[in-house]
Amino acid sequence: MTDTDTTRGRQSDSALRDATRVATQVIENVEEVIVGHHEEIEHIVTAMLGRGHILLEDVPGVGKTMLARSVAASFDGEFKRVQFTPDLLPTDVTGVNVFNQKTQEFEFRRGPIFGNVVLGDEINRAPPKTQSALLEAMEEGQVSVDGTTHSVPQPFTVIATQNTVEQNKAYDLPMAELDRFMTKLHLGYPEAGEETAMLGEVVGHHPIEELKPVATLEDLQAARDTVADVTVEEPIRSYATRLARYTRDHAELGVSPRGSISLLRAAQARAVLNNRAYVVPDDVQQEAPVVLPHRIRTDSSEQTAADLVTAALKTVDVE
Amino acid sequence: MSVVARVRRRVPWDETRLLALLSVALALGAPLRTMYHLIDVVGSPTVFLVVTAVSLAAAAVLARVLRPILAITVGAVLFGAGLVWYVTNLSTDPALSALLRDTVALLTGRRLLQIANVRLWVISFAPAPVFLTTYFALRRWYVTATLAAGTALGFFVLTTDADVVTTLLGVVGAFATIGFGTLDTIDHPDERQSPGAGGSVATGASATVDDQGVDSGRRSVLEQLAAVIVVPAVLSRLPSVSGTSLSFVDEEQATVEGSLVDADESMTIQGDISLTPTVRYTVESEAARYWRVAAYDRYTGDGWVRTGNSSPYDGTRLAEPPGDSRTVRQSFEAESDIGTVPAVWKPVRYDGDVDVKLTTHDGFQPVGDLTAGDSYQIVSELSVATPRQLREAGTEYPDRVTRRYLQLPESTPGRVGETTATLTENAQNPYETALVVEQWLQNNREYSLDVERPERNVADRFLHAMDRGYCVYFATTMVTMLRSQDIPARMAVGYTPGEQVDENRWVVRGLDSHAWVEVFFPDHGWIQFDPTPSEPRAAAEQARIEEARSEGDGAVDTGETGNDSNFTETETPTPPPLTETNETTETSTPANTSNETATPFVEGSENSSTEGPAGPTLPDLPSREETALGLVALLGTAAGLRRSGVTKRVSRAIWLRYQRREDPETDVEQAFQRAMYVLDDEYRPRESGETVRDYLDDVDAGEDVRRLAILRERLRYGGTVSEEAADEAVEIADSIVSNR
């Protein structure tokens, strides 16, 4: 169904149009580099617009890092990257107080967390203490070092990746911490045609080297404000509630209220992406498969969390 | 969870149980109501009410502790004890065979009211069914409960004591009990099972399903009840079964003769009535008197019953009336087939072609029917007591008379006695009282065959509310008034002398049938009084004869009647007064045959006075019971329609086609729903998890529907709506509906 309607929301038409344009431009820009994965790119952008963080999970070598770097490179903000290793210390992420011989004072040397887009590579290889340093920044927008808190720059988005191989050498993120990512995406292998095309593009000069920012941080911030103003009427809110309750009724651990909030924020961003100032059930249905599953622990090994979400979307009455 | 469900959890008896118990109450109420009516006719119902209440309470208490088999035993013991108590309390000591014969007679249509001690009978009979029904209803053995109540009601149906409406109420109650009872037992698997076995854990969803099942079950019970009420009523309209089924409407207009003379051992007071012109007897008699057929002693409020059994008559001479009397011989010849043998009061000997029995009030009753040409001779002893003798007769009534002939239904309003007492204030003795009452009725009530039958207490209504009636009303009222003054009286029926065709010869027609009063005087026996105004009655009868003649009805005349040459002057003589109202005429006695007050009938001139009231009459309002039954029928029909989906389809069709405009929001939403209904119909329903957009894509819906969906989406999720959008939406919906 085409989205040709331009309905007046609570905001001006131009703000909505600008936000939609920013999102579209970022997506197109990333697609310069990444072949295929259109939906995943959309999800990443909606998560960014919805003030969320993204977790990419898959086997190595399918382009998780490349995708994250492409998104980051599309903005003119500060891009930082942390490679998580088993011996990585929390201070390696947050920064550390060092003694300045000249001034005879301690001064705070910022860690890589202080960026607008932070790429946390292979997050599950670091010990929990280091992971939680990153997670505190994601949740609170600040880090604490030696009792002093330092705010991270805004806008602030973490794109983390984790490997699903070598599980015995990994520290799996606990559910409580997974919950802080708005979306969790699986990339999967590209299709045959796409892979061939990709190979042709990257054997020579990798296109990411030439990727230019297409949006400023101000654009991103404005788009986020627009998204936050998208109308979510009662029928939508109650639909989200019903979905969450369904998962709680049918799984050992269901979607938390934080999950429902994330779902609606993602749906708001999706509405903006579709140039609409209000959320429709379709937005919710599109975002639910990436927003909800990592918050659910099913009580049977046969049904995965993703299956449960699919079942919920099929069963729960969308009025 | 609905409020109902929440209440249901809190109240130990859910609605189904309540409905079932109410139905039981209805089923048990029908026989109880009949019993109450029986009791009411003969005396105070207090003892009966107490006995019933005690049985009810006992059953309620014992239902929790007593085992069913013991309860049945208790019921049987109650029944047996009642029987023994009844038999031992009878004043007479009847043989077992007589009791058995009585029971069989009851079961084949003899009214219970004819039993002399009906009060005793009812009180001894009541506890068993009340106890058993209540006990089993509370134990949730609804079928057994229905059986107990139904047996009791069935008995009264066989004795014809239960009227149509009561019976129907009872039957509806029984059906409802079984219907709702089944639902109730399904609802509560079984109390007799061990706890927990039936108490399955019901989730919210399955509870809702259960509720729906119960609801639809209730509806189907209602439908069946409606069928129970409606089907017989409809069937009785069909010609082939007319008269065999229940009917709320009188089948046809009754005749005076049919209601009086043909009535066997009981008679019901009718409403509108007509006259039969057919010739019944030719009488040769030494005196023109009322030809008496029978008498009734027990007044039920809406009719009369003759208690006791008739005895065989062996041709011997019967007892003469006490006091002075003279002999009157009569010879009757039947002119058409008929089942009565009238005679002048008081008959002492019968001799005829057909064997007769002797009824309890010294009337003869043929064993079979008389056929045309049959004849019989009667010897009667006519009391010749003078008014002075009657005045001085006193009030030393024998017990057997007071026991039987002072009875009045307990429900008779006190004002009957008060009014009578006021009217007869100056009367010094029973004779004068009777005269005053007779005179008052003759003077103050008009004669008419068009009567709106009162629901109950005919006498009270006739005395206080009605202004016209025919002989039955006059006689019934007079008996009631006299009894209220402790004067023994009874109702007699028979024929007036009829048309005199020769000096000692009379032709009696069906329309000569009549009802009058017999009053008991010590030492003189039963003396006849007639409170009906004679002139209008005779006029009505004559008019009917003329009418029948003009219609060419051959049965109106014999060879002797219908020509003017014979006795035109004394044709249809007004019956001689049974008592003298002229106090000064010492010689004229009630038994006197003198014609001094006989008024020659003035032909034709008084026809108009016999016409019934010409004014508009209101249709009869249905009684409470009929209203209740009608309501059940209506509800059941509604439930049936609902179940068959007719109402839903009709309202759906209207809803689909005619959208009433309200506010824009409602309009858009309703327009959208209409369009969705059409799509649902044409393609498939939208599934639960399917968004509107997905659905429209899937069914490949047209642009207009999509436009409508967008309008609705904006309203619903965007919160924006306008009059224009509403107009557009309705317009789209209209076109979709009309184009489908």
UniProtKB/TrEMBL annotation, chain A:
Domain (ATPase AAA-3) ranges: 53-182
Molecular-function GO terms, alphabetical: ATP binding; ATP hydrolysis activity
InterPro entries: ATPase_AAA-3, CbbQ/NirQ/NorQ/GpvN, ChlI/MoxR_AAA_lid, P-loop_NTPase
Residue ranges annotated for the ChlI/MoxR AAA lid domain, each copy included: 247-303
Source species, domain of life: Archaea
Pfam families recorded: AAA_3, AAA_lid_2
Protein name as it appears in the record: MoxR-like ATPase
The species this protein was found in: Haloarcula pellucida
TrEMBL record, chain B:
Record bears the keyword Transmembrane helix: yes
Keyword annotations: Membrane, Transmembrane, Transmembrane helix
Compositionally biased spans, kind Basic and acidic residues: 543-552
InterPro entries the record matches: Bact_TGase-like (IPR052901), Papain-like_cys_pep_sf (IPR038765), TgpA-like_C (IPR025403), TgpA_N (IPR021878), Transglutaminase-like (IPR002931)
Transmembrane segments: 45-62, 69-87, 118-136, 141-158, 164-183
Stretches assigned to the Transglutaminase-like domain: 463-533
Ranges of compositional bias, category Low complexity: 579-600
Region (Disordered): 189-211, 528-623
Cited SUPFAM superfamilies: Cysteine proteinases
Stored PANTHER family: PROTEIN-GLUTAMINE GAMMA-GLUTAMYLTRANSFERASE
Protein name: Transglutaminase-like domain-containing protein
